[in-house]
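User: Sequence in, structure out. Go.
Assistant: Echoing your sequence, followed by the structure tokens.
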Amino acid sequence: MQARSALFDVYGDHLRSRGSQAPVAAIVRMLDPVGISAPAVRTAISRMVMQGWLEPVQLAGGRGYRTTERANRRLDETGNRVYGRVVPTWDGRWHLVLVGPPASRAARTRLRADLAFVGYAELVDNVWVSPYPRVELEEILERAGASARTARADGFDPEPTGAWDLDQLRASYDVWLASADQLVRHHLASHDDPDEAAFAARFHLVHEWRKFLFADPGLPSELLPADWPGRDAADLFTAEASRLKPGTDRFVARCLGS
């Protein structure tokens, strides 16, 4: 697990509802049970400041960092998808984005990753499709220095679900269903303190589940097979995350001194 990714999890899953800020010492305490060292935490924080995700703030517990507005928008959108808080209704139409790509290869690579992360797939070169308009699109294009035109398509024949690798996604969900219980049990057994154990188990559970955001576009249910394993996987994740939350919250409160 990379320190930068773990920091996004800490701020999104534990600090967003607690003012989106914390002293560095508290963050170090929270990430110790999941194997992230203090030097790695500080290095990742410095990089996230340079990238515009965090900003320094002086807190009662010492020097700390809070998320920027840009980070808060990304964390809120990610949280909505992770926990299924917002399930849009599909009107049967498709959202198309005709991208004028940036000149820089690095910017083009970042643009492709960001578009895929929020649920778009590339139909043909520089033409991206999604069942829904994504609220992050404008910010993604601006950050990459790209331009785009958008359109709505009343339908495709056949539907463009083949733009996503649903066979690989199905296999990934099958693996998740077979391994999630073992993941939780392993981390619960690896810590003597029950609240710390709950935090570590839930942290790894959420971290692994978040990986599906890079692969699952959240297609409407009517476009997926009746036996789609993503539904059972989501139910399992929700049940385990809820079961582990009380102990997790107690551990976070101790780390924050509240």
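User: And one key feature?
Assistant: The chain has three domains: 3-76, 94-154, 166-256.
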